């Protein structure tokens, strides 16, 4: 509930968060309906409706937002997040919900003091649709918080498990469909992480898959070669050599093991996600020939 001192000292303007699940124009819609419907005239609720309750965890609050406002909603209550700004004094006896402060009337709003790896999550509000199209005054359910990576780790872990990851492509240093016994081939791949932008519990985040281990299988029954690097030029220490000791037709396969990380969008630090994922890619068939040395007359 907004304090009486806030109501007496300033008009509270709610600026809709871009993460509001019920639409970016919700606050504007609420304000317009306030002008059209009585007795609600735009005032913010000055008392708590005990029937409007939401759990305190981010998961419970996001579930309330996601499940409200649609045609199939279980309740007439609509939940949304909005950031509180302060405007110069306009009304002494109540606080009014405004879409924006009038020009020249906004007081600087510092918000919560969150560290560089955290996210300032806007407060949670609720309005209840009533018969005839009216709505109850917006009610502050939760004042918001500084969300840390630790708060999002469980959700990030679930998201990484379903993240679409393109297989790391295995290529041959010399692109041809044949090789010589014991000379073999030198495969390699790209080690660029794959990044996915998404939203976890109302917070914008980036989740990335980082290649951690590579298993190179020549396809000829020999033991696979396992490395922590993507291979390199044939004459360097990081070159992968699959020699092929016997002739035949073989296909090289690469299985890449990926580790997950995430960070709140715009913050510098990546946090590890438990678990791993694997992808596999294969080459075209390679004909391995046995070379013979023959003397020829000059």
From TrEMBL:
Keyword Signal appears in the UniProt entry: yes
Source species of the chain: Isoptericola halotolerans
PKD domain location: 211-257
Listed InterPro entries: Ig-like_fold, PKD_dom, PKD_dom_sf
Protein name: PKD domain-containing protein
UniProt entry keywords in alphabetical sequence: Signal
PROSITE patterns associated with the record: PKD
Parts forming coiled coils: none
Signal peptide: 1-21
Domain of life: Bacteria
Pfam family, one: PKD
């Amino acid at each position: 509930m907004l304090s009486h001192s806030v109501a007496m000292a300033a008009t509270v303007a709610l600026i809709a968060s871009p993460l509001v699940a019920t639409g970016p124009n919700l606050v504007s819609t609420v304000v317009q309906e306030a002008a059209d419907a009585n007795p609600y005239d735009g005032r913010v609720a000055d008392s708590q409706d005990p029937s409007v309750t939401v759990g305190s965890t981010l998961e419970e609050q996001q579930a309330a937002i996601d499940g409200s406002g649609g045609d199939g909603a279980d309740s007439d209550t609509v939940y949304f997040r909005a950031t509180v700004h302060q405007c110069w004094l306009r009304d002494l006896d109540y606080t009014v919900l405004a879409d924006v402060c009038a020009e020249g009337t906004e007081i600087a709003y510092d918000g919560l003091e969150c560290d560089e790896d955290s996210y300032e999550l806007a407060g949670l509000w609720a309005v209840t649709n009533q018969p005839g199209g009216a709505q109850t005054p917006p009610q502050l359910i939760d004042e918001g918080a500084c969300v840390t990576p630790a708060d999002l780790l469980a959700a990030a872990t679930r998201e990484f498990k379903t993240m679409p990851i393109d297989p790391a492509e295995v290529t041959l240093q010399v692109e041809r469909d044949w090789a010589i016994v014991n000379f073999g081939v030198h495969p390699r791949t790209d080690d660029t992480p794959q990044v996915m932008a998404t939203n976890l519990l109302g917070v914008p985040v980036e989740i990335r898959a980082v290649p951690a281990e590579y298993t190179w299988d020549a396809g000829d029954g020999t033991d696979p070669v396992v490395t922590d690097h993507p291979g390199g030029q044939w004459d360097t220490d990081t070159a992968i050599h699959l020699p092929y000791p016997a002739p035949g037709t073989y296909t090289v396969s690469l299985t890449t093991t990926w580790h997950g990380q995430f960070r709140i969008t715009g913050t510098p630090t990546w946090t590890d996600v438990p678990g791993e994922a694997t992808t596999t890619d294969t080459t075209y068939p390679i004909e391995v020939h046995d070379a013979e040395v023959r003397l020829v007359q000059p």
